[in-house]
Every structure is written in C-alpha cells, then in structure tokens.
Design goal:
Helices cover 35% and strands 30% of the residues. It is α/β, with parallel strands linked by helices. The chain folds into 2 domains: 209 residues, no CATH class; 156 residues, Nutrient germinant receptor protein C, domain 3 (GMP Synthetase, Chain A, domain 3, 2-Layer Sandwich). The chain is globular, with a radius of gyration of 27 Å. Belongs to the GerABKC lipoprotein family. This is Spore germination protein KC.
Length: 403
Amino acid sequence: MNKYCKIFSCGCLLIITALMLSGCWNRNELIDLSIVLALGVDKVGNEYEVSVQTIDPSSMSRNRSTNRAPTTVFSEREPTVFEALRKMTTKSPRRMYVSHLRFIVFDEATAREGIHNPLDFLFREQEIRPDFNMAVAKDCKAKDIIGFVSPTEVLPGMDMYKSLQTSERVWSPTSAVNVREIMSKLVMEGVEPVLTGLALHGDIKQGGTSENVKKPVPLANYVYEGIGVFKDDKLIGWMNEDESRGYSYITNIAKSSVARAKCPDGGKGWFNVELIRSKAKIEPSIKNDRPHIVVRVQAQGNIGEVQCAVDLMDPEMHRKLQETISNKLNVALDGSVKRAKEYGVDVFGFGEAFHRKYPKLWREWKGRWGEMFKNELVVDIQVEFQILLHGKINNPFTVEQSK
C-alpha cells in the first residue's frame, strides 16, 4: 500500500511541477518583433499613411557598428491603422510590436478631420499601454517627424517624448497630453481636449539623414509650438505661446515657467521671474441669469534677471514688480480665454465646473454650452503674484555702483 501511495504522490508532484513550469501560450520572441517607439499618421486621400519608428537592437549594443542607424522607419498606406501596421510585414521580417509606444503624432489634415478613427485601434489594442504622449504636426508631415534624426538622443522618438515632458514642467506653453487624458475628455461633458503642436525647422530633408548629427549646429530641429484646440475629436485652431501659457495656468498644468515684463515706471529694459508655484481656482456662479466664472490664480516665484535700474530692497518697488508680473499673467490668461471663446470651445473645464455645482441647470445647458461659452459666459480673472527671493545678489550692478 505504501508503494502505491509513493507512486501516486510522485505522479501528482510531477504533474504539478509540469503545470508550474509551463511556458506562456501567447509568448512573443524578441527576434520576431520590431519594437515601435513612435508612430505617425498622415491623411492621404481616403487612406492613412502610417509611419513607425522601430528600434534596431543590434545597433544599440556597445559593439554596434557606426554605419547602422539605431532606428528604422517603415510606412504603409491603408484605410485603417491596423491594416497598415500588419502590411508592414511585407517590408520587415518582424511584426510591429506597439507595447512600448512612447509618442504618436498626427498631421493637421488628420487632426482636422478627426482623430477618433485612428485612436480607436490604439484604445482597443490590448498590447498598447495608455501612457504615451501625442502631438500634432504643424506645417509638415507626421512622416517627416517620425523620420527625423535627433542630434541629442540616439532614439529620436524618446527624445521627443522626454522633451515634451520636460518642457511642460519648466516651460508652460506646452502640454504633455497622454491617451488617458484624451479618452476622458472625449467622453466628459463641459471640457474639450488639446494637443501640443510639433514643427520641424530648417532643412527638413537633411533632418532625416545622418548629416543632421555631424555638425555642431543641426541642419534641422524640432520645436514644440503652441497648443491645438479641439472640438470633440477635431482640431479647429491654435493658441499662440502666450495664450498657451494662459491655458496652462488656468488648468493647473504649469509647474514652472519664466514670465517677462517691462521695467516699471517706464524704465528701460526687462526683468523676469521664475515661476515656482501656481494654483488656479475656478469658481462658477449665476449672475443676472448668465453663467459667470471667477478664475483666481495665486502664484509665487523668484527674480531671475533684472535689466532695470531699480532698488529691489525698496518695498514700494518690490510691490510694483509684483503688480507688473500679475498684470502680465492676467493678460496671458485673458488672451487664452478670448481665443477659446473665439473658437467656441471650452478647453478649460468651465462647463464641468458648472456641471458639478449646478447639475440640474447643466442638463438644460449642456446641449448648447459651446454657444453659451462663446457668447454668454463672463470670465473674471484675478492674478496675485508674490516674489519670494532675489537670488544671490539683491540689486543690479548699475544700482550698486551708483550708491
């Protein structure tokens, strides 16, 4: 009896071990995949031209050959993004693997027609992680951006991704929008999405060759320019740099930035401050049967540079500098609101604020909120800026020398 028990126990142990050591049924071998880092979508007639930037693993090793590019770009035209990606296997022996996608860019034609169709695949595909950023190509093709050779990073797609993340933190006129934000704003009531613009400057043809990295001054470079305003999933216009900065302040995206203003009291030159903290509060109300919004912004910063002949130790001058920057920011925020009202698109979430505070009234408004935002909404902007530090020196050298 003991003999049979031992045989039975050994058999069960072998079966359990076999189950625990079994491989994944849907595994993907690395040698069978092309890892897609960036993806571009251009509208060509009734089709999408999909371009992907893939990593060449062999060129990323320490013993890589200097004659091989670290990335390869493939392009295909099909009515859908999914078909185009699969058709790329006719040019590449490896299947396009989009799980590590970091950056996607649409051309203006696609953005103005609507990004819902190409995004449907990205929302639906199980392999894709929804943490990549998006942008709209300005005055160039998305294919040109995907094929751009970055002078600062080995992987151009990662360079653009990092640059957008960094510029949002330290230069507020840009917004690093990921697919989660787009998904939420496309279904939310009272707020519309935005995407940052991405342009190529210089010799665009040479920017896609290795010549772009062989000179200290690149032949071409990419630049993030302004914020694109969307209505539903369609691009309808652009905000300039100051208007984009105002949008970042109102929506609390701004983490740090630089604000410049003319010297007070008619003085010559400029001074600027480094914004280190900003908090905007949106207060909805109803006045005279019209929607009314108060945007209160409290910001703090340090003196960054002074070209004015002013005494920073003078309390009155300190107050004037703060007031000057407050007025400067007020103009930027007001310009941003006016531009959005011109387009009739609420990108700030004012409608969502009314939805939360006046849910019953919002049921009557939501169908015509775009018109109300454009023609009826009153927006009162109040900015209070506080200067904290002057830096290592107090007064400019010109003032110190005159004492």
